[in-house]
Amino acid sequence: MKREPPRLLREYRENVIPALVKKFNYKNPMQAPRLNTIAINVGVGEAIENAKILDSVMDGIASITGQRPAVTRAKRSISNFKIRQGQPIGCRVTLHGDRMYEFMDRLVSIALPRIRDFRGLDSGSFDHAGNFSVGIKEQMIFPEINPDKMMLVHGMDITFIITGKSAEENREMLRLMGVPFRKKD
């Protein structure tokens, strides 16, 4: 039995690609930018004193993304921060395929509107390769998180890795997919 693709993937195929082809005059629809990967990174400095905090954070990220995160370890010792080489200091998840589109759909349509005084994401957060990065201050904006079970309120960095040639094309693709960018005043 074949599963139906995620809502956002259908939206991308049916509406976003034709709009991008029309706007940027692509000769082939395969030239349109695609969402390749979503990378989520969480740094947990408090895990140095209490290892159970990292387990709590990993459980929260797993419930948000639907995928178990990998532990990130310190590359070198830093005495000022009491960090030893190889010590667990955070976690990360790399999403592909259906999970990636389902996470992006929940982020854009449910989580971001729950941020207090949210006016949109900064459209200048594209790097030289055209990838878009967002920093979220607290994970409580996701409805999957139970505040009573969380030991620590933490943030996360979310990076959208996109195949487009320029930041302008990638920005337009994300805008058409529902990412709320801040209006220029």
Characterization of the model:
- The protein is α+β, with helices and mostly antiparallel strands and 185 residues long.
- It has a single domain (7-26, 34-176), classed as Ribosomal protein L5 (50s Ribosomal Protein L5, Chain: A, 2-Layer Sandwich).
- The chain is built from four helices and five strands.
- The protein has helices at residues 7-24, 51-65, 97-111, 167-176; strands spanning 35-43, 70-73, 88-95, 132-136, 156-162.
- A five-stranded antiparallel sheet has the order 2-3-1-5-4.
- α1 crosses α4 (167-176).
- The longest helix has 18 residues, at 7-24.
- It is globular, with a radius of gyration of 18 Å.
Please describe the topology of this protein.
Blueprint (H helix, E strand, L loop, with lengths): L6 H18 L10 E9 L7 H15 L4 E4 L14 E8 L1 H15 L20 E5 L19 E7 L4 H10 L9
Antiparallel strand pairs: 1-3, 1-5, 2-3, 4-5
Report the uncertain regions. Answer: none
Write the H/E string, N to C: HEHEEHEEH
Q: Main sheet: which strands, in order across?
A: 2-3-1-5-4
User: Major sheet: size, sense and barrel closure?
Assistant: 5 strands, antiparallel
Intertermini distance: 50 Å
Q: For the CA atoms, what is the radius of gyration?
A: 18 Å
CATH second-level architecture: 2-Layer Sandwich
User: Number of domains in the coordinates?
Assistant: 1
The count of strands amounts to: 5
Find the structural class using helix and strand composition. alpha+beta
As a percent range, the share of strand residues is 15-25%
Mean of all residue-level pLDDT scores: 85
Number of helices: 4
CATH top level is: Alpha Beta
Q: CATH superfamily, please?
A: Ribosomal protein L5
CATH fold assignment: 50s Ribosomal Protein L5, Chain: A
- State the helical fraction: 25-40%
Tell me, what's the shape?
Answer: globular
